[in-house]
């Protein structure tokens, strides 16, 4: 992938990350302005980590979200991010969601997909929050 395509892709990811709809993040007392990074199984860690490190000073809070096979990459991204920015407060929530397109074979069982949300912030709002 050329540099221009990469920049375009990162810009699109950044625009989607800036839309902070806190209704989908199950963490209480979210900051008003935070960077939301969605990590999937095919996401390149270097690309999203570089973008997050560059944009973090504008937000001071970041939420890493991983769904299904992307959970391990989301956790890796959060851990690598914590190495670059020390003394961050972390809140982690694990939840399950229903698949958007359920397979027709699995009508009797309820199939749920795990989802993790990791909030890293400089400013602690609520110390009683579990996670």
UniProtKB/TrEMBL annotation:
Residues 36-96 form the DNA/RNA-binding protein Alba-like domain. It holds the Pfam family Alba. Belongs to the histone-like Alba family. Residues 1-10 have a biased composition (Basic residues). It comes from Camponotus floridanus (Florida carpenter ant). One of its GO terms (cellular component) is ribonuclease MRP complex. It comes from the Eukaryota. GO terms for molecular function: RNA binding. One of its GO terms (biological process) is tRNA 5'-leader removal. Keywords: Nucleus. Its main location: nucleus. This is Alba-like protein C9orf23-like protein. InterPro entries: Alba-like_dom_sf (IPR036882), Alba-like_NAB (IPR051958), DNA/RNA-bd_Alba-like (IPR002775). It is found in: Nucleus. PANTHER family: FI09323P, RIBONUCLEASE P SUBUNIT P25. Residues 1-24 are annotated as: Disordered.
């Amino acid at each position: 992938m050329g540099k221009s395509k990469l920049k375009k892709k990162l810009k699109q990811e950044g625009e989607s990350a800036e839309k902070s709809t806190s209704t989908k993040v199950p963490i209480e007392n979210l900051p008003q302005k935070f960077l939301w990074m969605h990590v999937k199984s095919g996401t390149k860690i270097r690309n999203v980590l570089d973008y997050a490190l560059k944009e973090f000073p504008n937000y001071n809070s970041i939420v890493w979200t991983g769904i299904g096979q992307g959970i391990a990459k989301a956790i890796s991204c959060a851990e690598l991010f914590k190495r670059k920015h020390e003394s961050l407060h972390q809140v982690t929530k694990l939840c399950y969601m229903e698949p958007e397109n359920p397979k027709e074979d699995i009508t009797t069982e309820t199939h749920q997909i795990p989802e993790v949300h990791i909030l890293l912030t400089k400013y602690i709002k609520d110390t009683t929050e579990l996670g």
